[in-house]
């Protein structure tokens, strides 16, 4: 058995035009989103149905070909690209892009794995419902990838991660069988939760091909405010106050350092800075409510007035229209793009107990300045659920490549401090290949052994996204 026979069988299964073997055709599937790594693959295969996925997995079992499942390829930890051996295939799920059903009464939507996140949001809107998962990459990431990495986003505070938004899965197992689990049930107490094994597994246990997802009533009003603060500690005080005063209407709570908005202003000058003077930190918060608009407006105005009176924040801007609200959110959503335009940087996707975030930022900022003087901390993230994007950029005028050469030392310093405060080195991006070895330093031997046992039981041939996670 050889690659020629394998590729011929793949063409018989899904059609010649959907088996890509030329370097030009494969190129767009082999490089990671940050353009820092390019792998190699025997082929890129593009099935159009769950049954075709199952056929391809069966062929890979027969020929012992590793499989790298891929959705939108927007990940940041090298989880959706192959290694450089050239032995694997990339199995793109982009052609599995149909909304199979919308059930407004059950508040569910059934979507195939290759559906773009925004496509699902729009289908929910058409049914007068809300699908609340929201990410900067929502115009290009796929729901299969979101589930495989247990993606978070800006509304986790109220609605939870992808895991909390999923009720059922259809999965092609590592042997090429189909697990039919598309049940839109809130209660199903019939043994092990197989669904949860595949969510967050990054394609290492099987391939998610479709999902039943939760929908919610559409809020009648969404209100946004941007608060200026002296410190992350003040941001935590504002979070506590907002939760006490606003309860479940608090949907988003995003922390941004001033450097974040300086970079946005530098690279996107068309986005106006909303304050007369600069402040060390900012919080973007959003309320959404099913009550008439005056109810949420009164809540937000009372909250910000109290925060100003208590000297929690120094200034605040309340959006008075949808246009102004979108402009404030655009500041937040442009941070990653501004960083990319500024040059290479070292990213950390971490989570911490919310109560320790201010301590972590102060301690780790000081440690980095001690060991890597003048480095720039681009700190932002989802403060309401404890997830920080704690990124480190080179000092101004320092060669980026030379600075990136210190990545291992910087990662060690940051991640050791995360671990000391009972945090996680990956909050919502996953482990992929990038953090596969590093996680061994922080997970207990018992946890690692259990993960290996599950992997061996479900994928004994180690064909499903090998070299990722574990």
TrEMBL record:
<protein>
    <submittedName>
        <fullName>FAD linked oxidase, C-terminal domain protein</fullName>
    </submittedName>
</protein>
<dbReference type="Pfam" id="PF02913">
    <property type="entry name" value="FAD-oxidase_C"/>
</dbReference>
<dbReference type="InterPro" id="IPR004113">
    <property type="entry name" value="FAD-bd_oxidored_4_C"/>
</dbReference>
<comment type="similarity">
    <text>Belongs to the FAD-binding oxidoreductase/transferase type 4 family.</text>
</comment>
<dbReference type="InterPro" id="IPR051264">
    <property type="entry name" value="FAD-oxidored/transferase_4"/>
</dbReference>
<dbReference type="Pfam" id="PF01565">
    <property type="entry name" value="FAD_binding_4"/>
</dbReference>
<feature type="domain" description="FAD-binding PCMH-type">
    <location>
        <begin position="37"/>
        <end position="218"/>
    </location>
</feature>
<keyword id="KW-0274">FAD</keyword>
<dbReference type="InterPro" id="IPR036318">
    <property type="entry name" value="FAD-bd_PCMH-like_sf"/>
</dbReference>
<keyword id="KW-0285">Flavoprotein</keyword>
<dbReference type="InterPro" id="IPR016171">
    <property type="entry name" value="Vanillyl_alc_oxidase_C-sub2"/>
</dbReference>
<dbReference type="InterPro" id="IPR006094">
    <property type="entry name" value="Oxid_FAD_bind_N"/>
</dbReference>
<dbReference type="InterPro" id="IPR016167">
    <property type="entry name" value="FAD-bd_PCMH_sub1"/>
</dbReference>
<dbReference type="InterPro" id="IPR016164">
    <property type="entry name" value="FAD-linked_Oxase-like_C"/>
</dbReference>
<dbReference type="InterPro" id="IPR016169">
    <property type="entry name" value="FAD-bd_PCMH_sub2"/>
</dbReference>
<dbReference type="InterPro" id="IPR016166">
    <property type="entry name" value="FAD-bd_PCMH"/>
</dbReference>
């Amino acid at each position: 058995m050889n690659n020629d026979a394998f590729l011929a069988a793949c063409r018989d299964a899904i059609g010649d035009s959907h088996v890509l073997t030329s370097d030009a055709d494969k190129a767009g599937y082999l490089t990671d989103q940050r353009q820092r790594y390019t792998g190699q693959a025997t082929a890129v295969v593009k099935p159009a149905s769950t049954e075709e996925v199952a056929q391809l997995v069966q062929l890979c079992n027969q020929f012992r070909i590793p499989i790298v499942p891929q959705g939108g390829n927007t990940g940041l930890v090298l989880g959706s690209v192959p290694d450089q051996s050239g032995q694997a295939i990339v199995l793109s799920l982009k052609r599995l892009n149909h909304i199979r059903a919308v059930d407004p009464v059950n508040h569910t939507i059934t979507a195939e794995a290759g559906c773009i996140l925004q496509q699902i949001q729009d289908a929910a809107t058409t049914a007068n419902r809300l699908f609340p998962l929201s990410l900067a990459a929502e115009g290009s990431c796929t729901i299969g990838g979101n589930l495989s990495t247990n993606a978070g986003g800006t509304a986790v505070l109220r609605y939870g991660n992808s895991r909390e938004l999923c009720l059922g899965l259809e999965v092609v197992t590592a042997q090429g069988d189909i697990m039919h689990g598309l049940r839109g049930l809130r209660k199903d107490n019939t043994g092990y939760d197989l669904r949860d094994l595949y969510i967050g597994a990054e394609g290492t246990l099987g391939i998610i091909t479709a999902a039943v997802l939760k929908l919610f009533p559409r809020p009648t009003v969404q209100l946004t405010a941007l608060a200026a603060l002296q410190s992350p500690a003040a941001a935590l005080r504002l979070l506590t106050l907002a939760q006490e005063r606003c309860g479940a209407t608090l949907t988003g709570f995003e922390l941004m350092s001033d450097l974040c908005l300086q970079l946005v202003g530098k690279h996107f000058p068309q986005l106006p800075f909303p304050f007369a003077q600069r402040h060390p930190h900012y919080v973007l918060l959003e309320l959404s409510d099913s009550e008439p608009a005056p109810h949420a407006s009164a809540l937000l105005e009372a909250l910000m007035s109290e925060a100003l009176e208590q000297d929690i924040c120094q200034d605040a801007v309340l959006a008075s229209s949808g246009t102004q609200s979108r402009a404030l959110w655009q500041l937040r959503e442009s941070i990653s793009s501004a960083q990319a335009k500024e040059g290479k940087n070292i990213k950390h996707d971490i989570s911490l107990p919310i109560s320790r975030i201010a301590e972590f930022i102060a301690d780790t900022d000081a440690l980095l300045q001690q060991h890597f003087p003048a480095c720039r901390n681009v700190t932002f993230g989802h403060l309401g659920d404890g997830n920080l994007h704690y990124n480190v950029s080179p000092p101004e005028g320092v060669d980026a490549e030379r600075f990136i050469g210190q990545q291992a030392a910087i990662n060690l310093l940051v991640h050791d401090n995360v671990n000391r405060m009972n945090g996680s080195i990956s909050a919502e991006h996953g482990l992929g290949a990038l953090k596969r070895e590093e996680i061994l330093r922080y997970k207990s031997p018992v946890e690692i052994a259990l993960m290996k046992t599950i992997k061996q039981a479900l994928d004994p041939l180690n064909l499903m996204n090998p070299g990722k996670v574990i």
